[in-house]
Sequence to fold (638 residues):
Amino acid sequence: MGEAMARNLITRENLITLVLLAALLVGPLVAVALDETFYVTLATRIAILALAATGLNLALGLGGLVSFGHAAFFGIGGYAAGILATHAFNGEPLIFGLSGTKNMLIIWLVGAVSAAVVAAATGLIALRTSGVYFIMITLAFAQMIYYFAISWPAYGGEDGLSIFVRNGFPGVNTLQPLSFFLLCFAVLIVGLVFFAVLKNSRFGAALQAGRQNETRLAAVGIAPFRIRLAAFVISAMMTAIAGALFADLNRFVSPAMLSWHMSGELIVLIILGGTGRLAGPLAGACVYVLFEFLLGGMTEHWQLFLGLVLLGVVLFARGGVIGLLAGRAHHG
Amino acid sequence: MSLTLLIEQILNGLQFGVMLFLMAAGLTLIFGVMGLINLAHGALFMVGAFACASVAAWTGSFWAGLAASLAAAAAAGAVIELLVIRRLYDRDHLDQVLATFALILIFSEGTRWLFGSFPLYLDIPPLLSGAVSLPGGAPYPVYRLAVIGVGIAVAVGLSLLISRTRLGMRIRAGESDREMIAALGVDITTLYTLVFALGAALAGLAGAMVGALQSVQVGMGEPVLILAFVVIVIGGIGSIRGALFGSILVGLTETLGRVLLPHGLGLFMEPSAAASIGAAIASMLIYILMALILAFRPQGLFAANG
Fold:
């Protein structure tokens, strides 16, 4: 068992994961040394998007639940940060006389719990369906929240909500770009470790078995529905925490975070990197953000080329970046 | 709330529903026959609107624009089917979502490149620019009535096409067993291209007709696309009848909800709160409707092929 585990740990895929993480960590350090803080923001963006997509990867990659509505959870996290910070700023109490806060730990908790509640409620209905129905229902629920955010005037409506001073984390000066990056990086590591542990747990095995063959899973006495619902909720919580960080990065949250383009982008990150692979979202986020930055600098029509590249990946390079570098996934 | 206003809003709801039907019919046909989920359907709607607006501006005739919109959308549909879509039939839905998402990016950005970011405007043709008076005396634009008429005509035509013609027979056969009809010697690849182009032309027609009611701009197809998804999920994916029923239901709910909810809440709330809460709930209403329907019938109201 121990030996097998050791062999399982040293795979090409895990090496690639480590190399990617090291590159993501070293990049901003070098950038700070060269006084190019813009690149720190870029790396922070990568880390946060990778975390959000890792959350989605739990449902989509492991469970085969193609959620086209994860922007809802991303946005809920973002609005948790925005709304709590606004109340802390203007001193008005929130519901039940509770006050706002600028403490990230509380914000993450509120964001994650809110996302969990929404995911549980929508998942109860959405998971009764499968295939295309599931895709469209998750999309529709996310649109519902999107339109609600647009037409509800209390928190900025269509214009969004500014966070005047970035929220704080105990012991970390989040106003400094590098410290904020390191915080996001640390959360990403925790997220990736959680994903890896979950993937190799009994729960993860059941979840993946449900994707591969639902009938067999049922035949060994495990009901897929509850496993999937739990995975959907956990996945939403992780994406919500990323959303809170994203709002803090931009110091702004708007309905755009809830839009279906965002849901599409999160799926794109996973497919670009490699579906169901540990480092897939990270690799996808690196490629996507760098692509956006490099091509966006050359032409304002960069999305056209992004579309062409995506089309190329889907049609000809199945398995994404990780699939290309580390070969096909092994089902041990 | 007068009766006239109610009739006016019901007609608006019907017009919106009929427009949704043109989109949803193509989507549901493409899904039913080819098993493909096509996010780029909204892009074809946009292509139709842009073709109509630019040809109408060039020739001065709305009708030439309308013909151009059908041709352009059908041609765009046929081209993407030949180049991209046909490689996706055997793939899982995730690949289909992603590839057609990529097509949206390409179409949107390509259109912005060609036409710029400013919206185009399309005038209602002189023949249809008048108004008729509703019972109660309020005027109602003829153009909107014409849109309803076109929608009904398309619905009838489509059901005749599917139930009475050879092409329709092949489409139905393709829905129930594609391998068998290929084995019987029907050229299934051409059939797929035809169905896709037909769906695209309907989306283009919807885009052209809506283009005269609102501005023609990049991204105009996306909200309609998502509503059309709601429609076919409610109606049952693959069912034309379900698409028609779902479209009218969604069109009426969406339009009437926006008018009636703030009114209704205003009866026991102060007007400003009623207006904002009413608007917020109205924007979510069709999704709530969808959730309710799916909670009881996960396969939609008129589930096709089981």
